[in-house]
Design a protein that fits this description.
The chain is α/β, with parallel strands linked by helices. Helix content is 41%, strand content 22%. A hairpin with a 6-residue loop joins strand 2 and strand 3 (61-62). The model is unreliable at 18-23 (pLDDT under 50).
Length: 277
């Protein structure tokens, strides 16, 4: 009887210990977890060239995100672990502590309510992809008129920009960037507003879609790094420190240009001199 009671007390203490340890891990900050595991979990999106791409032969991730992840990992003393997600699910994956970092995430007001962001990773220039035969677009004001049929993917940075800069245009808002591109290709829309890191690869791969124009004045949007929202900001500070160092060394520009040529077939000299990343 005494032995049984003693065993039961020991078992209860063991269960309590596991519960305490589990609670401690649940309360663990991202920085604490990265230091403990020596791993940093990076969200990746299949086929999102030039941001992310998985080589079907080697099964290795490549693109801006993986290259930046390797550099960030070195700065943190941690190994990058790639976790596949989607653009639509990445916010939820940050919230649920499934990933630590999501590169190339735009800091929209809605997202800023539920996740944290780094300082800007790069500047993404807005362009106009116009259908074949459309007159060259030299300024944004040329598209700011009712007869200009402009298309964007709803809720995107492109949508927000077009709403602000082209209030007089006839704007169609479709469910995806691909649907917006199809609208231009089939002639239902004149021009698609699209950031340069998407427009240049698109037209390089599918020149039949139309022509990329860089209307003046040059307008840009920030692309940042999405992080889990938490009271402890040590991880956010560490990411920003890495980012400042990488930018000072010219690493951001070089990584972007390298992957644009390698994965998208877009050479550095195809960008106007005004376009800076």
């Amino acid at each position: 009887m005494f032995a049984t009671s003693k065993w039961m007390r020991a078992a209860a203490l063991a269960v309590a210990g596991v519960a305490v340890a589990g609670a401690a891990l649940a309360d663990e900050s991202t920085m604490e977890r990265v230091k403990r595991t020596k791993e940093v979990r990076i969200g990746t999106v299949a086929g999102a060239i030039p941001y992310f791409n998985k080589d079907l032969v080697t099964q290795k991730w490549e693109g801006f995100g993986p290259d930046f992840a390797e550099s960030l990992g070195k700065a943190l003393g941690a190994k990058p672990v790639f976790v596949e997600t989607t653009w639509g699910n990445s916010v939820l994956d940050l919230q649920s502590n499934k990933i630590d970092v999501m590169f190339a995430m735009g800091p929209t007001p809605q997202r800023m309510e539920v996740v944290d962001f780094s300082e800007p990773l790069l500047n993404n220039t807005f362009t106009a992809v116009c259908k074949k035969g459309h007159a060259p677009v030299k300024t944004w004001e040329e598209l700011n008129k009712p007869e200009a049929k402009v298309v964007v993917d709803i809720g995107s940075n492109q949508d927000q920009f077009a709403t602000r800069a082209l209030p007089k245009a006839t704007i169609s808002r479709l469910e995806s960037s691909g649907a917006a591109t199809m609208s231009v290709q089939t002639g239902r829309s004149d021009c698609q507003v699209l950031v340069v890191l998407l427009s240049q690869p698109l037209v390089a791969k599918r020149p039949d879609v139309g022509t990329v124009y860089f209307p003046q004045p040059i307008e840009t949007t920030n692309t940042n790094i999405g992080l889990r929202k938490e009271p402890n900001k040590d991880f956010q500070k560490a990411v920003n420190a890495w980012l400042a160092d990488a930018r000072a060394k010219g690493e951001i520009q070089s990584v972007v240009l390298k992957n644009m040529e390698k994965l998208a077939g877009v050479k550095a000299d195809s960008f106007p001199k005004e376009v800076k990343f």
